[in-house]
Structures are given as C-alpha cells and as structure tokens.
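Here is the promised in-class demo. Please do not try to memorize the tokens; focus on the logic of going from shape to residues.
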C-alpha cells in the first residue's frame, strides 16, 4: 500500500507541512500488473500479502481490476507498505519501504508457482523477493524475464539475475550503481555486456536509453509532463513487457513503453 504525502506549498524540512496525504494500492509488481491489464492483456500477480486489513483492501482492488491473485501467498506479518514524501511539484523527495513480508516468497514458493510462470508469455520480476528466490526464478524460467531492480539497496538481486535476463529496466541511478558508468548509453551497453539481452534505462523526464547486442540509442520524451507522477516508471515497464511478449524489436519496445508512460502521465 502506498502512503503519499504532498505539501500544499514549498516543503519545510523538520516541520509539519499542510498538504494532502493519499492512501492507494501500490507496489512495483502490482502497479505493473495493473498497467498490463489496462493494456488489455491478462496478468497473474505472484506476491505475498500480510494478514491485515491492508491486504483485504489490496486483494479487493486486484479483483476489481481483473488481476489474477489466485497463486499469491498470505503470510503472517504486515502487508508491504511504501511511505513517500513529495515536494510541492509532486516529485519524490524520499521514501521508506517496508517489504519484510516478501521474505515469505521463498525458493520453495517459487518452485510451486514455476508452472504458472512457464505457462505465461513473459515474466516481469522485481527485486523485492529474497536473492535466493530471484536467482531460482531466473534459472528455472523457460519464458523471457524482464526485471525491474526497484532500488539501489536491492541491486544484489539484479546482479545475480543479469546473465539470465531477456531485459532489465533500471532507472539511471540504479544503472549507474550496477555498472559503474555515468552516461546513460554507457550504462545500457554495460548491462548488455554483463549478460542482459536488452537494457532499458529510464531517464525520467529525459526519456529512455535502450540497448541490445546490436544497437544503442536514446528516445526523448515527446511531450514533457508538467508535473512528475509516481508510477510512470511502472507504466513504462508494463509497456515494455507487453511489447516484448508481442515479439517487438528493442527500439519498438522502447517506443511503446514511452507511449504507455506518456499516456499514464496525461491521465
């Protein structure tokens, strides 16, 4: 569940700021699943819910959207929560995530749901489960895997997975930390050299950098959004996933992902 704080005016640190607090269904995996479903493609969400009222709310929201959660876990503990503080423009200043419940997604759970994964067209994997589980999934997946590293704090999962990935979608900060490079195109090329077949580096308002073994380039944002919006990167990831499942080229995937992110920002 996302808890978002947006001040009404210029944010004053170490003070109580008047503004708006929003509570809404979130989580990278769930957000991507929602955008995939909204693009008209079926999607199964493999995750862990806690045994609390937040889980009840999230399950109900998934049901209304048509996201299949029949293979998800319910475990003892608090449902994953993301607390984010924005500045007055809506851009993220900082965030805290409590994803301890994801430890319930063990390699044993992954083994039980591998038939579900391998019966799909493509698997989108984020870095919230334990590293052992991430490694198990990418080693046993018989379908393409697209990974979102989620945060710099969890890059150990992405490093372990890279040689097995059909694609990886980090933001520029994650890509720089993974590769030691600075320039976006250098980061994208390095990720391919490190094993990923394709790399899509999100540059926020600057667009996306894409690469595979043969090409590398950058797509700018055609119509910059007036205000940042949490979740645009998840919409981008969903577009990449759908395009990859349709067999599109690396450039076509990047273009479609950018279109999906732009559509999300305009709503």
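The designed amino acids, position by position:
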């Amino acid at each position: 569940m996302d808890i978002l704080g947006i001040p009404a005016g210029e944010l004053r640190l170490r003070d109580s700021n008047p503004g708006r607090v929003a509570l809404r269904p979130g989580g990278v995996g769930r957000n991507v699943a929602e955008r995939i479903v909204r693009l008209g493609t079926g999607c199964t969400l493999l995750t862990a819910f806690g045994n609390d009222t937040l889980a009840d709310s999230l399950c109900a929201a998934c049901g209304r959207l048509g996201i299949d959660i029949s293979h998800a876990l319910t475990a003892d503990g608090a449902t994953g929560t993301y607390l984010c503080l924005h500045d007055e423009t809506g851009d993220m200043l900082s965030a805290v995530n409590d994803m301890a419940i994801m430890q319930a997604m063990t390699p044993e759970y992954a083994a039980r749901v591998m038939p579900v994964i391998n019966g799909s067209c493509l698997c989108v994997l984020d870095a919230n489960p334990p590293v052992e589980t991430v490694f198990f999934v990418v080693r046993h997946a018989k379908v393409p895997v697209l990974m979102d590293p989620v945060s710099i704090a969890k890059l150990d999962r992405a490093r372990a997975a890279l040689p097995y990935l059909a694609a990886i979608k980090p933001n520029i900060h994650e890509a720089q930390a993974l590769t030691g490079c600075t320039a976006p195109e250098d980061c994208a090329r390095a990720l391919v050299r490190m094993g990923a077949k394709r790399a899509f580096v999100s540059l926020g308002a600057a667009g996306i950098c894409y690469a595979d073994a043969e090409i590398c380039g950058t797509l700018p944002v055609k119509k910059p959004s007036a205000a940042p919006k949490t979740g645009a990167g998840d919409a981008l990831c969903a577009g990449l996933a759908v395009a990859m499942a349709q067999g599109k080229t690396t450039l076509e995937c990047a273009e479609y992902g950018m279109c999906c992110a732009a559509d999300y920002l305009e709503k």
